[in-house]
Amino acid sequence: MAPSDDAEGGYVESLKRQTASLGVVFGREEQAAEIIAALDAAEDNAAERTTGQSVFLSVVSGGKIDNGAGRIGRIIEPLNLRDVFAGEAGDVHGDSGLAPEAVAAANPDWMIVLDRDAAAGEPGAAPAKSVIDAQEAFARTTFASEDQIVYLDPYFYTRESIQAYAETYEPLADAFSNAS
Predict the structure, then answer these.
(1) What residues in the chain have per-residue pLDDT under 70?
(2) How far apart are the two ends of the chain, measured CA to CA in Å?
(3) How far is it, in rounded angstroms, from Cα 13 to Cα 138?
(4) Angle in degrees, 0-180, between the axes of helices 162-177 and 29-49, rounded to the nearest 10
(5) N or C of the chain: less Cβ packing under 10 Å?
(6) What is the CA angle 112-180-107, rounded to 5?
(7) How far from 108 is each of 10, 83, 111, 125, 126, CA to CA, in Å?
(8) Which residues pair with 65 in a beta bridge?
(9) Predicted local confidence at residue 97, as pLDDT
(10) Distance separating alpha carbons of residues 169 and 41, to the nearest angstrom
């Protein structure tokens, strides 16, 4: 019953099936249908606004910028976005503290950031925005020069529920609809 990356249609679709199943188990089919409909609407809205742009999915933790594909890559499954560190070459960098110069060389159109330390309540941790802003290597990238950086709600990291996905698609839709 748990959502799975390997499920037919991917993780986000499996969240919908899980919610429908739980609705049946607990006699709350109508409430489950409403939750699924809210995700569908938010997902469709974001999908309509994405047109193949390249993205770097980032998790900032302990002052380091990591490849966040393994942690937040599921959010782009239903969207028309291309992860610059996935695909034919594979996820060669994993979560290894990706060098800012490697990100700059890939020059993605957008950066989507999750501040893991904010979600975990790490005392004294630098906010993700300050870590990103301090990277001189990013100065000439498209995402930095066009102000195309989206900071996710840090609590997505701890919640990752179907509602969290719906709430994540809303700011993504807004950001991509406001892009030049």
Answers:
(1) 1, 87-97, 180
(2) 41
(3) 34
(4) 20
(5) C
(6) 45
(7) 24, 8, 7, 26, 24
(8) 60
(9) 58
(10) 9
Give the tokens for residue 117.
């330390």
Tokens of 108: 């993605």
Q: Give the Cα-Cα-Cα angle 124, 129, 132 (nearest 5 degrees).
A: 105
For residues 53 and 58, what is the distance between their CA atoms, to the nearest angstrom?
A: 16
**Contact (CB, 8 A) for 48 and 176:** no
What span, in angstroms and rounded, lies between the C-alpha atoms of 58 and 88? 19
Residues 6+ apart with CB under 8 A from 170: 42, 45, 46
Tell me the residue type at 57: L
Tokens (6 digits) for 46: 């974001």
Structure tokens at 4: 């799975």
Residue 179 phi, psi dihedral angles, 5° rounding:
-75, 150
Residue written as token pair 């509602």: 163
Q: Please, is 13 exposed, middle or buried when counting C-beta atoms within 10 Å of its C-beta (0-12, 13-18, 19+)? A: middle
* C-alpha to C-alpha distance for 172 and 80, rounded to whole angstroms: 12
pLDDT of residue 111: 97
Instruction: Look up the pTM and report it.
Output: 0.88
Q: How far apart are CA 176 and CA 81, in angstroms?
A: 11
